[in-house]
Design a protein that fits this description.
This protein is of the alpha+beta class. It has three domains: about 130 residues, Alpha-Beta Complex (set domain protein methyltransferase, domain 2); about 250 residues, set domain protein methyltransferase, domain 1; about 140 residues, no CATH class. Helix 16 runs antiparallel to helix 17. It is globular. The structure holds S-adenosylmethionine. S-adenosylmethionine binds next to strand 7 and helix 13.
């Protein structure tokens, strides 16, 4: 899971009978230049002051519309930014459910932080703004909600014990634990929860971090080895702690599954299904890395210190179990001392991932309460599963390290395209051959399927246009430009035809009775085929569109 990203530096300025909200794209943003460009294309600067003069709902809505356009761009991630450019000339009212919820919350947080100590007029404006934002979030929630099915008769005794242990040790939870179809345990709201409510609050003393290992008998051995990262030390600690009956965290370890079923445990048959896919590469690379790490680190430890590292607890299988535990259950947490640590957080680790999560912002221990809070960015009704975002991950990453594919269309499911091109050097006019990485995703995400767009990313199309004919004035309805369009669409069609051939025909297994890993492998290939097929359809429609325009252009030329 990923830690909370630093929030953009928003601030609020007070003016007599009005209220101004200051939105700023921080210069520290990794994509500052690209976002600045996009803001400017839409008529905004990197610092904007939005003035609210009345609490009338219509005026508040109008102001919020403008603030939201800016906040959306500030909160774009790398993939959203890459694909946003094809919409640069359009009024975009939506990038992704995640972006929408994060952007609305960033404005809401700013407004809420400013509620104290203002005039009645300002309070009315703020209150109305808050209502409008809450309505918009609720609206967005209705459209994107994915309901989980609770398995009613599954025993949850161990999970209940863990909850009781947590509550006895200062945890506050408005979530219960239940089994949900297709996802193991999940966290279910015990009451209606609103935006801003704390669903779960865990004291820092219940978080498993490297601080704990420092107190263990193995630390003096591990700290001497320069090749040991704190994550590896924690991993080796958890392999033994799992079997420690006196562990402070025994009740937590008792809830962990014996098998994690991530891509790292895929068997031969599943890997065969994945042959020639990016997921195959990702799993093989991760496994080879872990095997090499095991061979280098673990046997020397149990050979030299069998009393501290009993060989029967430090087998390859048990090492792999611990890797899967840490990959699929850890969170990066920022502590009040400013350190970012990889941690296991009992109880919070029951929260499943969604493309449209309720909790989007977490990962920082509150220094006043010394607790880790999970606050809602969108409402969650009583009985509904409460979801987290583990990060903006593709299906291949989620399968490899977590062992599942989320429900819905994942905007991070991109296909990387490595293109070879000659980049002209402006200084000495020499040409350097280079590889540029672009990406493509399901073209159903795009709103622009017109000529010169075709549902494909503008960054990629512009790159290909330049590569084919650097001197040409592109995107005009003139013969040369249209012929260039035909060439680049044809090039893309060939690339994706080849990709589709490699994916082969639909795997016709009896899916209900197939092993978990083969089922996931087949599901991944289905996703890939759907993406490639949408791209091919867009190439074909694009070619037809360009051909029609070329015919018209030539007919006009003939007429003179
Ligand atoms: C942090 S744990 C969440 C709790 C977990 N369901 C359990 O029973 O322990 C992460 C694991 O939950 C499962 N998971 C999380 N989100 C999921 C989802 N949307 N669909 C299916 N499985 C999911 C995956 O097995 C993942 O490795």
């Amino acid at each position: 899971m990923e830690v909370d990203k630093p929030l953009p530096t928003y601030g609020a300025l007070e003016l007599e009978q009005s209220f101004s909200v200051f939105l700023e794209l921080p210069e520290s943003d990794s994509f500052f230049d690209k976002k600045k460009n996009l803001l400017q294309k839409k008529g905004f600067n990197t610092k904007e002051l939005c003035l609210l003069r009345s609490s009338h709902p219509d005026l508040i809505r109008t102001s919020l519309k403008i603030m939201l356009q800016i906040a959306r761009i500030i909160n774009l991630d790398e993939v959203e930014l890459y694909f946003s450019e094809d919409d640069a000339s359009l009024t975009v009212d939506f990038y992704s459910p995640r972006n929408e919820i994060v952007s609305l919350n960033s404005i809401l947080r700013l407004v809420e932080n400013s509620l104290d100590g203002h005039t009645q007029m300002q309070k009315n404006i703020l209150e109305e703004l808050r209502n409008v934002i809450s309505d918009m979030i609720a609206n967005c929630s209705d459209k994107n909600n994915v309901k989980s099915v609770i398995v009613e008769d599954h025993c949850c005794d161990k999970e209940s014990c863990l909850l009781q242990w947590g509550e006895a040790n200062g945890t506050r939870s408005r979530l219960g634990i239940a089994y949900v179809e297709g996802a193991g345990r999940g966290a279910i709201a015990r009451e209606d929860l609103k935006v801003g409510d704390t669903a779960l609050e865990i004291p820092a003393s219940l978080i498993i971090s490297e601080e704990l290992v420092k107190k263990s008998d193995m630390f003096h051995i591990l700290e001497k080895r320069s090749e040991m990262s704190s994550e590896t030390i924690l991993l080796l600690w958890s392999m033994k702690e799992k079997h420690n009956n006196n562990s402070k965290f025994k009740v937590y370890f008792d809830t962990l599954p014996e098998e994690f079923n991530t891509g790292l445990s895929f068997g031969f048959e599943a890997l065969m299904v994945l042959d020639e896919t990016v997921l195959f590469e990702e799993i093989m690379q991760a496994k080879e890395h872990l095997q090499a790490q095991y061979e280098q680190l673990v046997p020397p430890l149990f050979n030299e210190h069998p009393d501290i590292f009993p060989p029967e607890l430090y087998t390859w299988e048990k090492f792999l179990w611990a890797c899967e535990l840490w990959y699929s259950n850890s969170m990066k947490i920022m502590f009040p001392d400013g350190e970012l640590r990889t941690c296991l957080v009992p109880i919070a680790s029951f929260l499943n991932h969604s493309l449209y999560p309720h909790v989007t912002s977490y990962g920082k221990v509150d220094s006043t309460t010394n607790t880790l809070k999970f606050c809602l960015s969108r409402p969650c009704s009583s009985g509904e599963e409460c979801f987290l975002s583990y990060g903006n991950f593709s299906s291949s990453h989620l399968i490899t390290f977590y062992g599942f594919v989320p429900k819905g269309d994942n905007p991070d499911d991109v296909i990387p395209l490595e293109l070879e091109g000659d980049e002209g050097d402006s200084e000495d006019d020499s040409c350097i051959s280079s590889i540029t990485t672009h990406m493509v995703r399901g073209t159903w995400f795009s709103k622009n399927h017109n000529i010169f767009h075709y549902g494909l990313p503008s960054t990629l199309l512009d790159y290909l246009r330049r590569a084919h004919n650097p001197m040409l004035q592109t995107k005009t309805l003139l013969q040369e430009s249209l012929e260039n369009e035909m060439e680049i669409l044809e090039q893309l069609r060939l690339i994706f035809d080849d990709m589709m051939d490699k994916l082969g025909d639909v795997d016709l297994e009896d899916r209900e009775n197939t092993r978990w890993d083969v089922k996931l492998a087949i599901e991944f290939k289905d996703i890939q085929r759907r993406i490639v097929s949408s791209i091919l359809t867009s190439c074909h429609s694009g070619l037809d569109l360009v051909k029609d325009n070329l015919c018209m252009c030539m007919a006009e030329d003939t007429r003179g």
